[in-house]
Amino acid sequence: MSNDYFTNQQTLIPGDLARAQDVEDKADAVEAGFDLLPKPRPAGDGFAEPFHIAEATEDTHAATRGQLVTLEQQAGTHEANAQTAESGAVAARNKAEKWADEDEDVEVETGQYSSKHHAAKSAGSASSAASSATAAGNSESAAQGHANDAADSATEAQGYAASAAGMIPAGGWDVSSGNPPKPSLNGSTKSGFYRITSGSGTLNGVSVRPGDQLAYDEPNDVWFTFGPTIHVSDQEPTSGDGNDGDIWLQYKN
């Protein structure tokens, strides 16, 4: 019987006389097989020199040094990644704490403040609003009046700005009345503006709603709106439906 270490060139028959040469050949073949093995350690606990083994492919296979080095490098990479992730998590936690608890008027990032800051500002605004409501006698009609006065003041301010630009105030306009005429002064068409008092729709090709300033530019013969839309309501302001940037004057019942 032969294997990778021993080649059986001749089988001896049990009971026959064997020639010395045949026996010697067998011994030489066995010796040659042992020569293929690494040199053993004197104590018999392994080998005294390194030897090649194939890459491990099964759970029961011995791992090569190269595989162990690769695993060690991968472990080092994973450790470095974990440390980076930990540092990032700590930084994120610290920033989250700042976003939540940084003191009033202290920036978390340029121009941006914490929830605590906004809560304090909101509380101050709420306190001011409550004081104003108390001063107004908690009257809905008074609140409505103040809101209307504020709207009128804002409109008046816009009117002053428009007048400074050479535009004349043409008064209020209800969308249901249809397209307004071009503003005029002393019988001559002038640049001017209307304040939309009620209704929504399209006038002279321009989409308008209550609180808008619908203006006419006489030199260029075009209509347009200017300034923020002013809302007076007891409802919460809305956003995302074209109202962003508007002025909301809200009164409470």
Describe it.
The chain is α+β, with helices and mostly antiparallel strands and 253 residues long. Among the domains are: 102-135; 140-250, no CATH class. It has helices at residues 20-35, 65-101, 115-135, 140-164; strands at 107-109, 112-113, 168-174, 184-185, 188-189, 192-198, 201-203, 206-208, 213-217, 222-226, 230-233, 247-250. The strands form five sheets. The chain has a four-stranded mixed β-sheet. Strands 1-2 form a two-stranded antiparallel sheet. Strand 4 (184-185) and strand 5 form a beta hairpin.
What's the helix and strand layout?
Blueprint: H1 20-35, H2 65-101, E1 107-109, E2 112-113, H3 115-135, H4 140-164, E3 168-174, E4 184-185, E5 188-189, E6 192-198, E7 201-203, E8 206-208, E9 213-217, E10 222-226, E11 230-233, E12 247-250
Parallel strand pairs: 3-6, 11-12
Antiparallel strand pairs: 1-2, 4-5, 6-9, 7-8, 9-10
Based on Cα principal axes, name the global outline.
rod-shaped
* Residue-averaged pLDDT: 80
DSSP, total strands: 12
Tell me the major beta sheet.
4 strands, mixed
Which consecutive residue ranges, at least 5 long each, have pLDDT under 50? none
How do the strands of the widest beta sheet line up side by side?
3-6-9-10
SS-based class: alpha+beta
State the helix count.
4
| Rg estimate, integer Å | 47 Å
> Could you tell me the strand content as a percent range?
15-25%
Write down the oligomeric state: single chain
Separation of termini? 107 Å
Percent of residues in helices comes to 25-40%
Series of H and E elements: HHEEHHEEEEEEEEEE
